[in-house]
Amino acid sequence: MTARPVPETVIEADPEVPTIRITREFDAPRARVFRAWIEPELVGQWLGPKDLTTKFDTWDLRTGGNYRYRQLRDGQEVASFYGSFHEVRPETRIVQTFTYEGVPDGVTLGTATFEDLGDDRTRVTILSVADSFAARDGILASGMERGVVEGYERLDAVLGAYAA
Amino acid sequence: MTARPVPETVIEADPEVPTIRITREFDAPRARVFRAWIEPELVGQWLGPKDLTTKFDTWDLRTGGNYRYRQLRDGQEVASFYGSFHEVRPETRIVQTFTYEGVPDGVTLGTATFEDLGDDRTRVTILSVADSFAARDGILASGMERGVVEGYERLDAVLGAYAA
């Protein structure tokens, strides 16, 4: 296999609606990408900026389940997050809520869609909505972009690493 | 106690953001209103339009819990709903997701706030957000208003009924 360039992560703020849309393609079949999205031992390898490690208190990824995790730098907790999994459709769709505990009144609803592009490639689109433009813009200003982009680069490696 | 007029239920669609805001005052202390909102045997007495009865498959109202219920007319199921409780703050705030199973891809995120107005009165405000104006407007066109207004009128009776 020849090396391909790192796919671009596109992060878009809608001017009309307080949403953030993240789009990213992965060079792996959909079943493999979905598995890396749901199994905590895999998620823990890629989530978030590359200088942080992730510890799960709960990760019950099923319709009606919930999660809570903390991110650490050099063993010190720097952030924690929690939410619920509203719906999980195998290999297709995950709908979840999300709160960064540093902003306890903030909450977003995100829908991740997994698209089979053929040729063992997969597109993941996450549409997150906040209930105001101020809240949405606060998230964009928080530095989430680096965490997302670096996380997906780590995920590229995870997807290669556990291939048969 | 003299009879007061039935309080108005205000349902507002924001022109700038795809939200629905429902505001209603209740002639009962906040602890009592909150209890009627969380205990399934009470919720089942008031939820939804007055010609329907509610059956809970699940009602686990706690942070990270979930719910599913069906509404029946003359014993026949006419609608079902499910979601997750993202956050529950006693007597103050409930954040939950909501899907009407007749529109399986539709989902909203709602934040209910319970305000103590003094004089044994309580204001409940629910701010629900959809991820598009089309989805939000579809909910408004679905006849939800009658269900909400009639439900709260039944809740008035429940609040009186279980007072000490």
Automatic annotation (TrEMBL), chains A, B:
<dbReference type="Pfam" id="PF08327">
    <property type="entry name" value="AHSA1"/>
</dbReference>
<dbReference type="InterPro" id="IPR023393">
    <property type="entry name" value="START-like_dom_sf"/>
</dbReference>
<protein>
    <submittedName>
        <fullName>SRPBCC family protein</fullName>
    </submittedName>
</protein>
<feature type="domain" description="Activator of Hsp90 ATPase homologue 1/2-like C-terminal">
    <location>
        <begin position="27"/>
        <end position="160"/>
    </location>
</feature>
<comment type="similarity">
    <text>Belongs to the AHA1 family.</text>
</comment>
<dbReference type="InterPro" id="IPR013538">
    <property type="entry name" value="ASHA1/2-like_C"/>
</dbReference>
